[in-house]
């Protein structure tokens, strides 16, 4: 998992706090160490190792890796599977990851470290620890994902609404300044589309038509797939463009100015703490 994109949260399984690392999609990683503390609070790592000694566990881990990891080392996997069950056999998460190039387990060091596993694997481990405890984990994990989805939808809608409000200011400026009276609605639409694409090129580097050609399987337009940073900048340059239109600047002049402003604002927003807080809610 890319460390820079991880968000740490937690779930509460009947009183036990369990850490969750998320990248904003369904590929969350859940702490096996925290799950193990339910049974062995003093030595949770030993419980994880005991689980990994089982042949059935190794077969499950190997199957998961073969499904999702093209770099998984099958020869090393077969060796572990053959050794499983022997009294002398010991397998740690670190050893499994190092020898097989597994991606389903992650071993993190430090005070807040431990062993994390993809949620598919974490639920399997929870079943081994306690079937009842697994149900508590799943229930609160579902609550966490529902809250994340609701928060993401709320923040996205707020920014889309803000963008639409500014777009209204933008189109009103076009109507008052660039569109003469009695021009047909068809020709008005052409002018609006041209101005919208001026903003598209200034911010995204391509027109709506160019974006659709590059993304034939996606619905909507590139604004529907914009980042939070881009939506904020879009809102800003829409207002600026409305003022530039009133001032009588040509399209070429406005495009150059808006592009320069968009680049500068995007650079500024990348390190903005307030925007990072908004992103953490998504």
UniProtKB/TrEMBL annotation:
KilA-N domain residues: 7-144
SMART domains: KilA-N
PROSITE patterns recorded: KILA_N (PS51301)
Superkingdom of this protein's organism: Bacteria
Pfam family, any one: KilA-N
This protein's name: KilA-N domain-containing protein
Species of origin: Paenibacillus psychroresistens
């Amino acid at each position: 998992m890319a460390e820079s994109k991880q968000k740490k949260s937690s779930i509460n399984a009947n009183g036990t706090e369990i850490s969750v690392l998320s990248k904003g999609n369904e590929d969350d990683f859940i702490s096996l160490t925290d799950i193990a503390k339910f049974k062995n609070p003093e030595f949770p790592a030993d419980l994880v190792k005991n689980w990994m000694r089982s042949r059935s566990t190794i077969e499950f881990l190997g199957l998961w890796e073969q499904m999702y990891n093209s770099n998984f080392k099958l020869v090393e996997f077969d060796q572990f599977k053959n050794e499983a069950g022997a009294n002398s056999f010991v397998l740690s998460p670190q050893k499994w990851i190092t020898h097989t190039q597994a991606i389903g387990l992650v071993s993190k060091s430090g005070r807040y470290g431990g062993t994390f596993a993809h949620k598919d694997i974490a639920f399997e481990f929870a079943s081994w620890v306690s079937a009842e405890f697994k149900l508590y984990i799943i229930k609160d994990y579902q609550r966490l994902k529902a809250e994340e989805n609701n928060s993401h939808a709320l923040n996205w809608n707020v920014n889309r609404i803000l963008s639409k409000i500014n777009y209204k200011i933008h189109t009103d400026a076009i109507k008052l300044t660039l569109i003469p009276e009695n021009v047909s609605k068809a020709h008005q639409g052409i002018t609006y589309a041209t101005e919208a694409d001026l903003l598209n090129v200034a911010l995204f580097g391509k027109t709506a038509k160019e974006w659709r050609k590059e993304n034939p399987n996606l619905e909507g337009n590139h604004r529907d797939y914009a980042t939070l940073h881009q939506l904020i900048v879009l809102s800003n340059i829409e207002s600026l463009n409305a003022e530039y239109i009133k001032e009588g600047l040509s399209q070429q002049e406005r495009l150059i100015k808006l592009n320069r402003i968009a680049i500068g604002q995007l650079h500024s927003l990348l390190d903005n703490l307030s925007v990072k807080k908004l992103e953490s809610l998504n």
